[in-house]
Predict the 3D structure of the following.
Amino acid sequence: MMVGEVWNETRGERLLGRVRWCASFLCRGRGLTFRRRLGEDEGLWLVGGRESRLDAAIHMLFVFFPIGVVWLDGEGCVVDTCLARPFRPFYAPRAPARDVLEGPPSLLEHVAVGDRLRFQAPQDPTGR
């Protein structure tokens, strides 16, 4: 599993410093389920297969804390955001999205619809 940073390229600021890149079915399915907390600099980037409202929907069953949710199209452009509350069964974006970024509620203060976000993996110190 890859861990990296997320940047808001539109605003030129780093949003989160420890984000898990979640591309497998198992990782996306588990998400933040059963976690007790999420640090202010932590997040999860759920990578989808295609742009869709239904495929990008999330649930908050067995998630014990509120999270900031950012839906992105295939180009990394924000199409919707929301504050998701614990144990709610369904959240879907207003527009088709491919990926979902989940983070602390404060994430929503630094992202707006139309912003372009980028996941950046750490640099290999050997230069490979």
